[in-house]
Amino acid sequence: MGRPLRADAARSVRAILEAAEHVLAEDPGASMEQIAEQAGVARTTVHRRFANRQALIEALAASAKQQLMESIEDAHMDTAPPLVALHRATANALRIKSVWRFTLGHPLADTPLTAVIWSEINAGTLEFLARAQREGLLAPEADLMWARRVYYALVDEALHGGGAALDPDQVRQNADALATLVVDTFLRGMGPHG
């Protein structure tokens, strides 16, 4: 990636990425100039940091998926009790996904780097589900690939609320309650029966 940015340059990049996420979520066709204006920087600063729109979207994707992975790692999926880890990972993911709505749903944001990060998230989720199954949180006969798909769909549903996306601030403020809803719904379908 090259040498690390100076503190002021790093702040500038962070401001551009945050502004780009906000502006593009409102208007996916927004210009680099509109992003620069929202970030409070000159258009030339945006172009100096990001050669073109695709480079900016790729940087957004890398930042968003890295933050998503870190939020999941923060749940200690491999060591915390499975129910605690599942709830914490869900709440953390909801918070991150509410911030990065445009980027995490944009097909142009798929790059080799983000594919690697997403692959790690998927593999880690399966490892966690296998541990949860061994420890009795999931039914012994549960298909873990299906369980992962169902879990991801429930998280997505919590964010979009039946097609009408919830306000990102509401999601962040209610992430624990939404996580409880997701986890309860997931476990009622995938948990042990009987």
Briefly summarize what is shown.
The protein is mainly α.
Please specify the SSE layout and strand pairing:
Layout: H1 7-26, H2 32-39, H3 43-49, H4 53-73, H5 82-99, H6 101-104, H7 112-134, H8 144-160, H9 168-173, H10 175-190
Helix pairs in contact: 1-2, 2-3, 4-5, 4-7, 5-10, 7-8, 8-10
In words, what does this structure look like?
- With 194 residues, this protein is mainly alpha-helical.
- Helix content is 72%, strand content 0%.
- It is built from ten helices and no strands.
- It is elongated and about 65 Å long.
| N-C termini distance | 53 Å
Largest sheet: none
Inertia-based shape: elongated
Number of helices: 10
SS-based structural class? mainly alpha
pLDDT below 50 for ≥5 consecutive residues: which ranges? none
- Percent of residues in helices: over 70%
Oligomer: single chain
Number of strands: 0
Instruction: Output mean pLDDT.
Output: 86
Instruction: Bin the strand percentage.
Output: under 5%
Radius of gyration: 18 Å
What is the succession of H and E elements? HHHHHHHHHH
DNA-binding region: 31-50
Domain HTH tetR-type: 10-68
Pfam family, one: TetR_N
Organism: Streptomyces plumbiresistens
